[in-house]
Each structure stands twice: as C-alpha cells, then as structure tokens.
Amino acid sequence: MLRIGMLTSGGDCQALNAAMRGVVKGICSKRDDVEIYGFKDGYKGLIYADFSMLTSKDFSGILTRGGTILGTSRQPFKLMRVPDKDGLDKVEAMKHTYHKLNLNCLVILGGNGTHKTANMLREEGLNVITLPKTIDNDLWGTEMTFGFQSAVDIATDTIDRIHTTATSHSRVFIIEVMGHKVGHVTLHAGIAGGADIILIPEIPYDIKSIAKVIEGRSKAGKPFTILAVAEGAISKEDAKLKKKEYKEKLEKRKYPSIAYELAEQIEKETDKEVRITVPGHTQRGGSPCAYDRVFATRVGAKAAELILKEQYGYMVAMKNGETTKVPLADVAGKLKTVDPKCSIIKEARMIGISFGDE
Amino acid sequence: MLRIGMLTSGGDCQALNAAMRGVVKGICSKRDDVEIYGFKDGYKGLIYADFSMLTSKDFSGILTRGGTILGTSRQPFKLMRVPDKDGLDKVEAMKHTYHKLNLNCLVILGGNGTHKTANMLREEGLNVITLPKTIDNDLWGTEMTFGFQSAVDIATDTIDRIHTTATSHSRVFIIEVMGHKVGHVTLHAGIAGGADIILIPEIPYDIKSIAKVIEGRSKAGKPFTILAVAEGAISKEDAKLKKKEYKEKLEKRKYPSIAYELAEQIEKETDKEVRITVPGHTQRGGSPCAYDRVFATRVGAKAAELILKEQYGYMVAMKNGETTKVPLADVAGKLKTVDPKCSIIKEARMIGISFGDE
Amino acid sequence: MLRIGMLTSGGDCQALNAAMRGVVKGICSKRDDVEIYGFKDGYKGLIYADFSMLTSKDFSGILTRGGTILGTSRQPFKLMRVPDKDGLDKVEAMKHTYHKLNLNCLVILGGNGTHKTANMLREEGLNVITLPKTIDNDLWGTEMTFGFQSAVDIATDTIDRIHTTATSHSRVFIIEVMGHKVGHVTLHAGIAGGADIILIPEIPYDIKSIAKVIEGRSKAGKPFTILAVAEGAISKEDAKLKKKEYKEKLEKRKYPSIAYELAEQIEKETDKEVRITVPGHTQRGGSPCAYDRVFATRVGAKAAELILKEQYGYMVAMKNGETTKVPLADVAGKLKTVDPKCSIIKEARMIGISFGDE
Amino acid sequence: MLRIGMLTSGGDCQALNAAMRGVVKGICSKRDDVEIYGFKDGYKGLIYADFSMLTSKDFSGILTRGGTILGTSRQPFKLMRVPDKDGLDKVEAMKHTYHKLNLNCLVILGGNGTHKTANMLREEGLNVITLPKTIDNDLWGTEMTFGFQSAVDIATDTIDRIHTTATSHSRVFIIEVMGHKVGHVTLHAGIAGGADIILIPEIPYDIKSIAKVIEGRSKAGKPFTILAVAEGAISKEDAKLKKKEYKEKLEKRKYPSIAYELAEQIEKETDKEVRITVPGHTQRGGSPCAYDRVFATRVGAKAAELILKEQYGYMVAMKNGETTKVPLADVAGKLKTVDPKCSIIKEARMIGISFGDE
C-alpha cells in the first residue's frame, strides 16, 4: 500500500488543482494500492490531523478549476516551533500525524514560506516532495512556477482595459500588481500591457525621474501615461533605510498601498490627474491559463514518477523546458529576484520603458 | 451640404466608438455631401472650437475599440453658465462655435450630466440628437444604455475570479462595483457572479444584518461570503441624514471608499478576515461586449435616420427591444434607479441573496 | 412533501445549470419538505425512470458551469408515440414514471421540440413548468431565451479573430454560425463582429448579389470581406423549391455544410480566395455569459414561485424585461423567426450590411 | 542615415505587430536618422517595390493588435527562381529593390518557408535579420516562436467549451488543431484542455488503438472522449507509404480534413456518435496573449540591437529564457518536430493520455 499525504499551503493560485490532478493520475496509472490523505487548509490540516481520504475520482475534472480543493492557509515558518494556544508544538504534531497515518510521503504545493517548512519536515526525517506554486515566480532552482503566467495574463488584461480609458481622458493611470518582494509579474505584465513606466522592488525609483517621463510624454504629444507598480516597489530614499526603519515607516503610511502614495506624489510633481487600479486577489483567481495547466500537469506527473521511484527530498523544477528535481535543501529560503541587469530589463529599456531610475 | 458636429462627454465607456460608427455609416450610406466635425474632449471641444474634420474612413474599423476616438472630459452642468478663467460664458461659446461652423446638428453621446447640458443647448435653439451612453444604465426613457452590459461582464468576471480564491481561504470578500447613485451594475454583476450579499444605494443596509448573513453561512458549513457593493451604497443610519450632513460625513471618511469601511465593520462584527477588490476603471475599459456593440450600432443607425429626416431634440432610446426616440426635455435631469420592489430584486431575494436590510 | 421532477432536453447550451439552481434555490428558500428527482439525459430518463435523488447542495456552485448536470438527449416529438424496440409507448411510460413517483410537477428545460412534448404531457394531465432554453432564441412567447447571448458572444469572438487574419490576407472569410431554421444568432453576431454580409434563413440570398458586394468592396479599397452565414441560410432559387425537394437536394449536397457550398460559388463568381470557419459546438459550450446567468436565474426563481403557488401548464417567459408566465398551449410548436422588416434588420442595412438579397 | 526594409511573410499570426513595434522602438530610441520601408504583403512587396515609408508613430499602439499592419502573403520558396508571368526573376527583383532603395538591411518576420528565402537573400549578399514567427513553434534554433502560445490558448479554449457539451451528451468530440507537419500546438492544447487522446504527425496512430481507448473509457463510466488531432496526423499504415503515394492518397480523400475521416472511422469502430470542431483560422487571429507580447517585444528589441551593431545574417532566437542570435544558415530549411521520446510526451502518457499508438 502506498499512503500519500497531500496539502496546499500559502496564498492560493491558479493550477493548484491541475498539479494535484497530475500527481494522482500519474501514480494511479501505475499502482492500484494507493491511499490519498488530503489535508485541509495547508499545514493546519497536518498539525491537527484534519484530512479526508480521497480517490483518483476526486481529482478528475479539476484541471481547469481555480483555487484548491484542499483549501489553504498561511502558517508562517517563524511560528512553526512556537506552541499553539493549547501548548502544542506544531512540528511535533505534524510528525505525529505523519507517523500515525503511516504515510509513505507528503506532497506539498507551495511557495517560499511553504518550502522552508517542507525542508524542515525533511530534516525531521519525513519523505517530502514539493511542487513550485506561486504567482510570484520567485522560487530558487526552477525557471518557472505555476500561477505566474495566469497572474501575468490577468494583470495584463487589467492594463489593456485601462489603456482605452487612459487614452480617452489624458490621465496618469497607476496599476498596482501583486509582488511584495519581487517584480517578475509586474515586469512581464508591464511589458505585455505596454506600460510606459514599470516600478519593481529590485530597481528603486526616484519620483523626480517618474515626473520627468510623464512630462516628456506630454511634450511629445502623448497626454497619458501608464505606470505599472509592484506592491513592494521602493523609492531610492527608502531603499537606503535599514530594514526595520523601513518597516516602521510602512506601518505609519496613511495609504492602503504604494499606488495611493505614488498617486499623491505624482499629482504634486506634475499637473496630471492620477487614477488607481488595484486588481488585487483577482490575480490569483479563476481558471489557470493554458501555459500553467501544461506546466502544472507536467510537474505533477514528474512528482508521481519520483514517488514511484521513492526519490524524496526534492522540489520538482523546470529547467530549459524539461522537468527535473532539485534538492529541497538547495531551494528552501532562497528568493529568485529580478536581476536588474538581465536581458529582459535591458530589452524593456531599449524600447523606451522607464524603470523610474534614470 | 450636411454639417454634423459630434462629441462624447462624461466618463468614457465601451461602445462609444461603435455608436459613432453607426451614426456615420448610417448617414454616409444615404448622402455624399456630409461634413463631420469631431469635437475634442467633450463639450470642451465645442466651447473652444477644438475639432478635427473627419471622414467616414475615420470611423471604419473602430467597432471593437474601447474608449472614444474623440476623447472626453467631464464638464459639470452646474458650471456651464459660470464663466471660465478668461471670462468666457461656456454656453454662449458653444452656440458661437455651432453657428460659426454652420452646423446642421450636434450628435452628443453621454450620460446624465451630459443630457442636462444637451437639453440646455436644445433650449438655446441648437439641433441636438443624443445617444444613451453610460455603464450605469440610469438614463430615464430607455430600457438600456450602452456600456452597461460590458461593465456588468467585467464586474462579473472579477467576482468569478474572487470566488475561487474565496473558497480556498474561508474569507469574506468585498467587491466594490461602479455606481455612485444607482445599483444596476452591482445588482446584475452580483447575481451573475453568485454574490451572497448585494448592497446598492437604493436599498440601505444594516451592518448587523450583514454580519448575521455571514455567520449564518458559517453555521451552514459555507465558510466564505461574497459581498458585492456599489460605490454609493449607504447604511440605514446614514440614509436618515440630510444630504448635506451625509456629504460632510463622506468627506471625513478615513477610507478611500465604502469597501474599506465595510471591511472594518465586518471584521469588528464577525471573526472573519475580509479582503477587498476594486476593479475600478477597468469596468469602463476594453472592447465592448457583443451586446453593447449591437445596441450601440442600432441606436447609432437610428440617430442617422433622425438626422436624415431632420428630426431633432431627441435622445435615441430602446424600448421593448425596438429603437425609438424620446424628447430630450423628458429625459434631462431624471435618474432611473433600481426600484426596490421590482421583479429582479424579488427574484434575487427568492434565491437567497441578501440586500443587507432584513 | 413537494416532489419535483426535473429534466433538460434537446441540444445543451449555457446556463442550464444556472436555471436549475434558480428553481431549486427558490423553492428551498421557502420549503424544507422537498424531494428533487433529476431525470438523466432528458425525456429518456423520464421514460425509463432513470433518475437520481438530488438535494439543494447538488445545485450549489453550478451557476457558472456550462452543460447540464442532468445530461440531455434529443428525443424527437414525432417519435414519442412510436413504440421503442421493446414495444414501450414512451408517452405512457413517462406518465407511469410521473405517477409512480407521485410527483407534484415536472420542471422541463428545453427548446422548440422539447416544448411540444412538454405540452403533450400537460394535455395528458401532468403538471408541467418549462424554462426557455435555446441558443436560437426562437421560442414563441418570450423575448429572450437563455443560451442565446452566450452563443452570440462566442460567434462574435470568432468573427473578431477572423477579422485580423482577414485584413492581413485580402481574402473572403465565411463564418458559419449555428441556426438551422432561424437567424437570430447570426444576425446579432454578424452585427457585433462587423460582418459585411449576413445570410439568414429568413432572407434568401442571391449569389450574384453577394459577388457584387465583394467586388464593390475591392473597388473601394477594402480587399477583404467577412460573411456570416447561418447554417440554414437558403438561396432565392432553393427557397422556391418545395420543402421535400429542397430536403432531397440538401441530402445530395457534396459539402458538409452551407459554408463550403458558398465558398465554391464565391470563388467561381469572384477572383477571391475564400476561407471557412465553423465554430460549431463551441457555440453551446463553456461558462454562460453574465447576461445569461442573470436571465436564467430570474426565470428559474420565477418557476419556483409558480410551483409554490401550484400554477402549472406554463412556460416562464421574459417580456419587456419582466419575468412572466405564458400558457404552454400558446407556445408549443411555434417558431419565432427574424422578421425581415424588423427594426434591427433595417438598422443593419442602414450601416451598409448586405443580406445578399439586393 | 539608416534605411531599414521590413516585411512579414507566410501565414499571419499574433504578435507580428508587437515584434515590429519592438524593432522600431528599439532603433528609434538610439538613432534619429532612420528611414523605414514597409513592404506590402510579404516578399511580394519587395519583388514589386510596393512599399510605404513608415515612421515610429505607425508602430505606436499596435502592441495588442492581431494580424500585421504590413499585410502578408505566401511566396513559396520553390517558385522564387521561377519567373513570374512577365518573365521577372523574383530573386533578382528583390535584390534590385534592395539596392535601388539603398537599404542597410531587411527585417523579415516569418516561419519556415520565409526563412529559406531569407537565407537565400543573405547568400545573395543582402543584410538580413529575421524574427521567429509561427504558431507552429517548428523553427530550428529557438526554443519558442511568437504566435505559438496564443494559438495554444485559442485551441485550449475551444477544447474547454467542447468539454461541457461533451459531458452533457456522451459523445466523442474531435477537435482539429492547426499543424500540418508538427504537433506542438496540438500537444500543448491537448494537455491544457484535458484531451483523452492526442494525435500528432510525429506519432502515427492506429484506429483500433483509438477505439480501444474510447471503449475503455465507456466501461470505466466515462461516456465521452475528447480527441485533439493535428491537421497533419497520420495513421501507422499511411506512415509506411512513400511520400508521393501518401500525397496522392490525400488528394483523393473525400473529406475536407483528417477530423472528418477519423469521425467516420470511429463511428465504424465504436457505437459512439462523433462531433467535429475545427477552430481553423481563429487560431491565428485576435490579440496576442501576454506571453507572446513579451516574447515578440524582446526579440524585436534584440533585433534592433543587432541592427545598431550591424550584425547581420541572423535569426533572433530564445534559448533558456534569454534572447540570442543564430546564424540564418544554421536555421533555414530545418524543422523542429516533437520528439516522441521527450519528457512532455512521457509526462502526458503518465497521466493517462493516449497517443493512439499503444
């Protein structure tokens, strides 16, 4: 008997279901003696032994469905060793569930935080296979994650819609795209949507530089400007602050997010009206795009292969278009940010996109 | 020679170009001796004689394009008789442009404010035909306006995407839909998107009632709630205030909009996390939906017919699926709100949708 | 106890699930003592007592899902009294199932053929409520049917995509739209997609007239032509044939459908290359558009109201934007075709669309 | 002065305009003294010196527009040295145009056939830079081409829509996807759409094997089957024929395409009804997806960089996510087919997809 535990953790995104379908179809095509334990709401389900017994039928017909049939929650890595209100050590509780159910392995789908915990479980002796899930595409060791292209599609669609209204009204439009620490989604959606200015955490901006671009466009007969900004974009000044100082500054910020702050500054520096659009959680929602479905299916099938071969302790990754495995120990805790000198940034600058830093 | 002035005024929306194409194609299919004066950025172009000479070619290929090729701006009716900074009376200026160019008529596309000014121009002796443009569908005298169905489609798509993420996370999700004074878009998108609670200006809400619905759902095993709220939704308490008092209260509101206020209240009244999505100007942007293209083309062609017959002073309207004309005098200044007792509200309540007023 | 049988019959379309959800949510919001019998694959399930017991939960979360959770099949009205291979009289079998299960009523969702059988069941003494389902919008007694607007959206999207490729290549493109007997979908999608020529069954065409339009466009510097044709479009010559003669001619036709025949004729009459696109069953598939979801929910809720009031023998209809009921006897067997003199045809001609009949 | 000729050749696809915009924006951001000669309808424009002088403005706002603003046509490589009806040698004519206009280089966007001619022009001494345009993704030397992902998206959307109607009706549905010689689009769309059987030219099929899969599904309680087939899929028997024999057989085929032939065979081998959908040219049409826009913009900008550095004779390619250049001589005439043993095929088989060859 092969006993597999499965959970999805962290912010949800598209193609989680597609990936799980890939794993289960892959395993069940080879073996009949399989038990699947679906843990509810991420690590929480593993901690409190909250699970359902699932069959391959439960994973049929979910390829196109957004969200996750298992539910998810954020369980910060930092708090994993902090006892809960009943004094329970969460890590020990997870190990206990795992051993009590006599599991052969855990399949864990998640992003950066999730991988840190997954690696800890591996260090504690559990058999773990992970799948690279995040709209941010910021996981080390893989050139792509599922969720990313779907999020780019939605953010691009938002910019497209704003484009028509922007040209009708001669305004500056700010679209705030998801991404607290990395700018991959903003960068791709910004290029795809024809943004004039793109601000990402990896390239601190200068508000004067932004104002100059806007005014330059006005002078050139282009009365509107489209600015795509990542949630975590940062000014050159703030980038000089210590991490703690900046965090305190953020907490005191009177605006809900960066877009509102930028809007005020731009209205001060230029004579333009500014409008804000925040697509927010829609970027995580809905049916995955074709690209993500193929990607998630492939890494899911690859995970099945590893499980059937009893090769544990890996994240399934994509490299040069081929699925592969990467040791969890090499991945956990590392962030893949946008390299300000990479070719896509260079190409974006070449066609006249400003990163607010000139 | 037939000399037609054309302008689009107020907030932009989908199918403005489709409607103008309908007018121009309709006229040019019958007459060769036509001059079209496209005024730039709404009434502003008429006031300051800022226009381009256009030909039927300029209106070819724009059926599917969002925005307006003429540009638009908001020119509040209240300020029309208030001299500008150079002391110019705007109404006299518009009349002057009209007569100087020897126009046969003006084709004006716009919503409520636009129609008040259009009617004033009619009273001043100008030949005017208007087309019912607004995402709000709040124009009196027509069962539909173009822009409405496209906005509903986009708001519905937003709710759809949020649905998958909501079910994954057990949260309350608030989607703020456009509509300061009327709730048509929110009502339709809310029903189409499967919202559990719909709040519109026409039906004041009670926060306790909302909390009860959310908790009732939790008890029934539905841990998430989707709430669609119109920008102009109002609580029962606030609905008792005098207009001026409420306006002052709004100005002091610490939040950018109603959704943020509701979120705070719901988090206070229940134990749920709340997330907010504001699709904002995307609701006005992008290619018009098929419904709006047909609608806009039809009213455009009807306007052409009226112009060819020299029948002026009308808004083109849709009644029982047929295009018709309505005297501008009967339309200007009237708002078509959602009747709280209409059949669609009754049907929505019947399938269990709450309007926060029970 | 309220015992409701439900079935979906004929070609599937969008919003069948949304409509059934409306019925069930509407009834279950008022009564607890409800049993729902879901008959499988249309009348077949009623004939052979093939059904599942469903609860309100089965109808939750299906608002946006295409297809029908009950399955459907075509059971021609003509054959209803013809015994099956086991000698079973189908009508008597349906009555038997109804009475044996002690049903209070049947809710039947379908188009024209379905309504004939539903009316027969009513005449046989069964309590029947029907809902107007068809992409064709050809049901008498209602201004709209669900499925129609979704089909128009998809056909329009097809024309939109073809438009870009047509302009790049200077070709004639034929898009064959669903509609064997009526042209509503083709007419609306044709206008929405900016088709130059629209051919529908209600307005017989002349191939010479079509060729003239194509060549006229070429001379005017528009080297491509978009032609939207309904499956059942007919030439002026063929329209003169007796029904039986025409049927025989169709059977001998060497082409899979009208589009291929037209293509050959156009290539003969002009010097243009022709390309064909047949979106086919995609026009029935996928998630319903917002318009159809609202429409289906409303008529579903109205059906619930009628059932709770024990008012049977009606089709739920939409008139002037309000739900209403129409006696089944007035509806069954009547076809709502496109009136060649209606205002939308007039408006389409006005903007230069050809119906191939000039 | 920098004089650049530009042309798009072969079947049109998405993102041609986006790519040209990238080239022109990239060059014009560095140099002011640029003349752009846009040749009309592919090589034809170069042969007959049919061109327009374009400015950077002509390439503004076309990022999202489908088709090509230059027009395109197919000019088979085989006929390039065959004199036209006026006795003109086409290659000499192209050289003549190039030299007469004193061009510095030609930017050529196209697929396989286009590249053969481009390489010949290079061999004749012209400065040539090419961009990899094709929905087929079959160009040697690059891991991706623009147009591919957009085509996959559309084909996937078609399969999605068919899925709902298939489940409602218990039928076999065949979706014929573009791809005469290679199966990349079919493979990706088939996986993304959840097809049960995928047939591509690279893996010859056996109709008995297909029938077995369909019947196996029936027995397992899955009454419908989705089959995605590439235009150029071939049976095991036919794959044994000599190329010429097979071509003759194809010409005698009574059906418009493979899907119709398969349908007949499946209806013979099983008891299932079969329905066919052929999305056809829609797969080339409409606005490019976000992925293609980013890709096309990047390779366009890279082409600009090469031109500014006067590095000619290359196709711009993508390798491991980075833009690069590949000698035209290495690319021309080579086809990148699907390797039947590649990991994506393996993964597809693993989750139970049949390629009709078992």
TrEMBL record, chains A, B, C, D:
Per the record, the domain of life is Bacteria
Major localization listed first in the record, in broad terms: cytoplasm
Keyword annotations for this protein, in alphabetical order, are:
ATP-binding, Cytoplasm, Glycolysis, Kinase, Magnesium, Metal-binding, Nucleotide-binding, Transferase
Q: Where is this site: Important for substrate specificity?
A: G113
Q: What class of enzyme is it?
A: transferase
**Which pathway is it part of?**
Carbohydrate degradation; glycolysis; D-glyceraldehyde 3-phosphate and glycerone phosphate from D-glucose: step 3/4
Chain positions recorded as Mg(2+) binding sites? N112
* Keyword Kinase set for record: yes
One Pfam family hit: PFK
What does the entry list as the binding residues for ATP? G11, R74, Q75, G111, N112, G113, T114
- Segments forming domain Phosphofructokinase: 3-307
Reactions the enzyme catalyzes = beta-D-fructose 6-phosphate + ATP = beta-D-fructose 1,6-bisphosphate + ADP + H(+)
Q: Which residues form the active site?
A: D136 (proton acceptor)
Where would you find this protein in the cell? Cytoplasm
UniProt-listed Enzyme Commission number(s): 2.7.1.11
Cofactors that this protein relies on: Mg(2+)
Q: Which residues bind substrate?
A: T134, I135, D136, R171, M178, G179, H180, E231, R275, H281, T282, Q283, R284
Concerning its family, UniProt says: Belongs to the phosphofructokinase type A (PFKA) family. Mixed-substrate PFK group III subfamily.
Assembly and interaction partners: Homodimer or homotetramer.
| Protein task | Catalyzes the phosphorylation of D-fructose 6-phosphate to fructose 1,6-bisphosphate by ATP, the first committing step of glycolysis.
NCBIfam families with a match to the protein in the record: PRK03202.1
Name the chain's protein.
ATP-dependent 6-phosphofructokinase
Which organism is the protein's source?
A: Ruminococcus turbiniformis
